[in-house]
Design a protein that fits this description.
The protein is α+β, with helices and mostly antiparallel strands. It has a four-stranded mixed beta sheet with strand order 2-1-3-4, with helices on one face. The mean pLDDT is 83.
Length: 122
Amino acid sequence: MTLIKKVSKALAVIMVILAVLGFAGHSYVNHVEKEKTVVTLAKHSDKVLFFYRDDCPDCQAIFHQIYWHNVISHNIILINMNQPQNRHYIQKYQLTAVPTLISGNQRYVGTKQSQIKRIVGD
């Protein structure tokens, strides 16, 4: 077998593995997005609060970005507003729409990448 054929086979195997891992990662994040965990916030949290609904198209459009940023930085709390026990945050944080990101005195409602990065950091 020539070196080119060996390299081609190795690259093909690597591509298949990467595709499977990519799909598995995507599926896992979709699973996390659908979780309806009851969230209890600390009094003085320095984390970014991400309020979303798992059935909201705008929320779904940015969820993967927020999730993977949090995997690296661990500075975001994901709060699914479809969990009835999380709905008291609507009044507490005066939420009017999702997705909403809150960090200290900063607040952003929407999907604009530059604004999201401003709130969550790079």
